[in-house]
Amino acid sequence: MKIIIPIYAYGKAGGFRVLSQLANHFIKDGHKVVFLSHKSSDIPYYPTKAEVLYYDNSGSLSSTNQMEYNTPVLGIFSLRRILKNVLDNITCDIILANHSLTAQPVAKCINSAKKFYYIQAYEPDFFKPLTLKNRVLQYISKRSYGLGLNMIVNSKMYFDYKEIKAEKYVPPGLDLNIFQEIKNKKSEKLVIGTIGRKEKHKGTGYIIEAFKNLKNKYNLNIELNVAFGTKDLENIEGIITSQPDGDENLANFYNSLDVYICAQTIQLDAIHYPILESMACKVPVITTGYYPSSNSNAFLIPIEDVNAIEEMILSFLKCSKEDIIKKTEIAYQDIKQFDWTNVSRQMLNYFEN
Q: What is the C-alpha radius of gyration for the chain, rounded to an integer number of angstroms?
């Protein structure tokens, strides 16, 4: 099969890793995969074996990007029209939309290919604050779930979630050859880690506040490593930042920790990569949720609760080594299902059937 994956621009978000890895495994199974991206896009951050074609504002395709190339005057509205025209004139068997803003061009194009929509999150929640622009984008996003595409969700929580009504499920995958436990000596300190994000719903702020409180209240030998955090965070005693770009560096980051904390506040039954990656590295996890977290494989906390984070860290310090190992071993068994070979085959089965 020839599979087309249209996007507007490459980025570092985990969803792009999913697309690159799916493409790599589709190719490994003998299929041809082509990404379509606007000419102003950067090259793929996550390596892919797929062909990448860049479309300009007239809809012409080339194999080279040009980051200084101007996007069209009307922004996303023009880009959607351009992408539809490109899809009208390309020969393929499958078109895989993967974002709410690519769904309409895929649905409206006259291409006879099978059209799928891979939903990696309920996107309307992310267009905040609700400025006029974000209200429009949120409206487009909500509408994307009713365009008649074959929807595949990445978490079973989205089978019947607000505007989403789906029956097909393919989770994101994980390279267990990269994300694995490394037997290295931990610091004498208790090293806590998290992925730093500015958005309030990502929960980084709650973790930082809890850490500061613990440093002020108790004489604890602890450190917080905020991956991809801004340098100004290092003005807070005990906080360091790091930039673990690439999966190998990210795996090393997890393996440097004694415990990983995720305090995100929305869509708690969804799949969150840092949870999977920590569990694959057999690093204990404190989290507000996210599949496959449970009381048997993680330490669960309520959302938006700084005190609960503090108390759980104190409780974690009192846990026996045996109890922590038991949780991490159960977690490791629970994430084996996300091996990329299994995940890509699930997606291909939907394409073929």
A: 21
